[in-house]
Amino acid sequence: MRTLITAFLIGGQVALILTLVGLSDGMLGEIASRSKGTGADILVRPSGGSILGFSGTMSQKIVEVIRKQPHVAKATGALVQGIGNFDSITGINLNEFNDISGGLKFLEGGPFRSGDDLIVDEVYARAKKLHVGSQTKDLPLKWNVCGIVEPGKLSRMFAEIGSLQDKYAATGHVSVIYVKVDDASQIEPVTASLKSLLTDYQVFTVEEFVSLISVDSVPLLKQFTTVVIGLGAVSGFFIVLLSMYMAVLERTREIGILKAIGASPGYIMGILLREAVLLAVTGTIAGILLSYGARFLIHALAPTWTASIVMDWWWRAGLIALGASLVGAIYPGLKAARQDAIEALAYD
User: Fold this and answer.
1) Tens digits of per-residue pLDDT, 145-164?
2) What are the phi and psi torsion angles at 55 (to 5°)?
3) In what order do the strands lie in the sheet with 176-181?
4) What is the rounded distance in angstroms from the CA atom of residue 251 to the CA atom of residue 268?
5) What pLDDT score does 304 carry?
6) Could you give the CA distance from residue 225 to residue 228 in angstroms, rounded to a whole number?
7) Which residues contact 291 (CB under 8 A, 6 or more apart)?
8) Residues of the chain with pLDDT under 70
């Protein structure tokens, strides 16, 4: 029973690592997917912001400047307003956004009818139990849900840009500008032209922007992940150390018998190290299975969050568990290997 509990405790540490990495990977992957879903080729942002941050704004007049550039087919500005809990409302000109993205696909309701209307995607509507005609209750301002759309395009919540600008004192400002060129071969030339024209702004191709969305682009996330992995390794070490130490105490007489019939210290050490390896392997398998359960709970309790199964981290988590288990087994193994056979046989 102790061995089984130890294996599951190691599995808990493995599951913690896999869940954290999977949550980071899933959330960032969702952001990248929604960025591609805009249908834009190029995006322009204010300077000085992080890759995932939309805290800065710029004049909406820049949209008209961009539209006049050669090979620019369409351009539209959007205002991203954070509302806490990792949520944000994106203000858009619906007709312009539809021209670039191919159109929001409505599952219920339709376009904005008033300045207080809000369009939400199916994931957010299901999470908050919203329907067309519902009024939001947990947002800073009251909104009426006028439409529910398929997810995957830019945001989970949309408002009419003029209304959002007025409500949040951002009249005439946007957070990002999406640009569509008339020919795919012109994406790089137009990007270079906009960079030389808009020297005080960030200009990316959408592919370039998506490639930059990673753990490194989120402040402190990489450090936090490293700390959690480190804590998992240290916890695994102490769990195995305690378990193996207790095993050595319980098997003192058995170890004495083995030594009395000629077992070498290396043989005794090998027995305990093999048991530690078995604990690590069993714990890793348990942790992988637990990570599936953790993903299920995340999607059930926080449907707007996306957690993925990171198979490329299975072997890494396994190596961390194996390393911690082997290190944790060294002291009990040495203690067992050095025991005097006569004293061990006399142990009660």
Assistant:
1) 999 999 888 888 999 999 99
2) -75, -30
3) 106-109, 144-149, 117-121, 157-160, 87-92, 72-84, 176-181, 42-46, 201-205
4) 11
5) 76
6) 5
7) 14, 15, 18, 19, 22, 309
8) 48-55, 85-86, 214-221, 249, 340-348
DSSP state of 251: T
Structure-block tokens of residue 194: 């906009």
pLDDT of residue 46: 87
Ranges of beta strands (E only) in the chain are: 42-46, 58-59, 72-84, 87-92, 106-109, 117-121, 144-149, 157-160, 173-174, 176-181, 201-205
pLDDT tens digit string along 5-14? Answer: 888 888 888 9
Distance, in Å, from the CA atom of 281 to the CA atom of 2, rounded to the nearest integer, reads 16
The CA angle 283-284-290, to the nearest 5 degrees, is: 85
Q: How far is CA 295 from CA 86, 229, 232, 275, 288, in A?
A: 18, 18, 19, 30, 11
Delimit the domains of the chain by residue range: 2-27+219-346, 48-199
Show the tokens assigned to 55: 């805290």
Tokens of 218: 């989120």
